[in-house]
Design goal:
This protein has a single domain, classed as Rossmann fold (3-Layer(aba) Sandwich), CATH 3.40.50. Helix content is 34%, strand content 17%. The protein is built from 10 helices and 11 strands. Strands 5-2-1-6-7-9-8 form a 7-stranded mixed sheet, sandwiched between helices. Strand 8 and strand 9 form a beta hairpin.
């Protein structure tokens, strides 16, 4: 039997692609089914909020947990903009600790689930998350890692994707926050907030379209957040049980 991994906040399945290539079975968890034309999650998907997930159900069954909790707010607040700095102060308000707890809720849920499952856990996010969740243990370009990061890791190599340097230090923040917005065309970010579903500048019928601004932002967000295959395959090889079949 193939070893089983769980991919939390799996999106389009960047972690999953690499794990499947290394001979794993993968069970993905997300709050929505990401399907954009031919692009979709490549393994079994469970639609469930990970805040409601109990990791103890995975004990003895799952050999690895990977996770990519949403990073848009962390990226936005790392930018040198007045509105971004205002948002940072709002979350830092000592009189409202619940705000910081809400900001980090999904990240902390990934940590909790890994501890409950008692198996290695790798969490990916952006550099800007370090201010809020602590220093990362490694980074593969813009993809920072927390948790049970192996001592030996691959050296990142940038790849041009859609005009951006995929994997380089500024790639995610640049793409998420629109500093290169004029270089993004149909199917990518078209303005508005990354974490708001609606944009009131457009009529409801357009928001339901596959080419609507909200749909385009969702697709771009999922593509930008997708883990590079070399990184995902490396983690898959490192944590593959010795007795598991090799691809």
């Amino acid at each position: 039997m193939k070893p089983l991994a769980v991919d939390l906040c799996c999106g389009l399945g960047g972690w999953t692609d690499g794990l499947l290539a290394e001979g794993w079975d993968v069970l993905g968890f997300d709050i929505e089914r990401h399907i954009y034309g031919n692009e979709k999650y490549p393994a079994q998907l469970v639609l469930q909020d990970i805040l409601t997930l109990d990791g103890r159900q995975f004990r003895g069954k799952v050999f690895l947990i990977t996770a990519s909790p949403p990073c848009q707010k962390y990226s936005y607040m790392a930018m040198p903009w007045t509105r971004a700095k205002t948002l940072v102060r709002w979350y830092e308000d000592a009189d409202h600790p619940e705000r910081r707890a809400e900001l980090n809720a999904l990240f902390n849920a990934c940590i909790r689930i890994g501890k409950e499952a008692e198996c290695p856990t790798i969490i990916e996010n952006v550099r800007g998350a370090q201010k809020w969740v602590g220093r990362s243990r490694w980074n593969f370009g813009s993809f920072h890692l927390w948790g049970d990061v192996p001592a030996l890791m691959p050296i990142d190599s940038a790849t041009k994707v859609g005009g951006f340097d995929y994997g380089t230090a500024g790639y995610k923040a640049q793409a998420f926050n629109g500093t290169a917005e004029k270089r993004v065309r149909e199917g990518d970010k078209v303005g508005g907030s990354w974490w708001n579903e609606r944009d009131n500048r457009y009529p409801p019928i357009l928001m339901m379209s596959s080419k609507s601004p909200a749909r385009a932002r969702a697709r771009a967000s999922a593509m930008i957040a997708k883990i590079p295959l070399p990184l995902a395959r490396h983690i898959g090889r490192i944590y593959s049980p010795p007795s598991s079949p090799k691809p």
